[in-house]
Amino acid sequence: DEAGLRAHFEKVIADDRKIEPRDWMPDAYRRTLVRQIAQHAHSEIVGMQPEANWLTRAPSLARKTILLAKVQDEAGHGLYLYAAAETLGVHRADLLDALHEGRQRYLSFINYPTLTWADTGALAWLTDGAAIVNQVPLCRSSYGPYARAMVRVCKEESFHHRQGFDSLWALTHGTPAQRQMAQEAVDRWWYPALAMFGPPHHASVHSEQSMAWRIKRFTNDELRQRFVDICVPQAELLGLTPPDAHLRWNDDRGHYDFTPPDFDELTRVIKGDGPCNRQRLAHRRRAHDEGAWVREAAAAHAAKHRTPHHG
Ligand code: FAQ
């Protein structure tokens, strides 16, 4: 009976074991996972756009190859995550419709432009760094397929993060103009990266329940603080300065004090009114429409191989 199933579910969560696709789960748990995993998958595939913008203009063959690999990894992450969402009984095609119709989200930072080559480095160093801080705890998320997908995703994100650092390192050790380009890119990307962690805890509608279900392990603010603490020493190594006059080590707290992102701006960007929201979504819809023939051909091919004389 349902009471028994619910008790079993609660026990698995309390024991810190995994819920698997065939296990009974509350509808609200399933819905919140579909919401978060779909948002995560959408972020990976729409997140290809800001960097793809620089593929044809990367300054060397090596940088181009690295950037191409990174953008392809993001497509791969999207695929594992859509597959993880499908274990919850939804279809990828429906999730894509929801993205295209604005019923599901992708992360806010993707709606900012990459104005110079240095933006690809700053974007990777900061937003992949933030993504890792957010995703390492998700490797212990209570839903098995999501947790397992995160293990590989985190390894690849670590490579992305390091290549961003390396790209900025080359610029900060280059000409004064290159150094300045790197600093200006960090000035642009610092706050979009801090905003990735979501609204402050008191305004986070889902955190408490998601933490009780051990989908999330930490509040948005705890992860944002962890990110700042990791990032500041790296910025010092690079010789770059985050654009925050109040950033300083606080010995009593054992953390850096910092100015939080503008949460009204985050709300506007989430609602569709960031600098590139329309462009990103229009591009995504166009790519989807232009790929229709591939989906049709793949479906026709699969159907042919399902007929008996093909064994
Ligand atoms: N942007 O109650 P909470 C990458 C929404 S990409 C947009 O705190 P929750 C690849 C939130 O969805 C990174 N929306 O929600 C790459 C909710 O809206 P809803 C991949 C945001 O779920 C790198 C509402 O606000 N990682 O790595 C944002 O407990 C570099 C209320 O918020 C993920 O996608 C935001 N920043 O916590 C590509 C992380 N913040 O659904 C290119 C997976 C909040 O009620 C370059 N997701 N919202 O309409 C999560 O960890 C969580 O869902 C949070 C939000 C932390 C984003």
From TrEMBL:
Q: Which GO terms describe its biological process?
A: phenylacetate catabolic process
Superkingdom per UniProt = Bacteria
Q: Which residues form the signal peptide?
A: none
Query: What Gene Ontology cellular-component terms does the record carry?
Result: cytosol
Report a single Gene Ontology molecular function.
phenylacetyl-CoA 1,2-epoxidase activity
Q: Where is the composition biased (Basic residues)?
A: 302-311
- Under which name does UniProt file this protein? 1,2-phenylacetyl-CoA epoxidase subunit A
Q: Mind giving the lineage of the organism this protein is from?
A: Bacteria, Bacillati, Actinomycetota, Actinomycetes, Kitasatosporales
- Part of the whole protein covered: 55 to 365 of 387
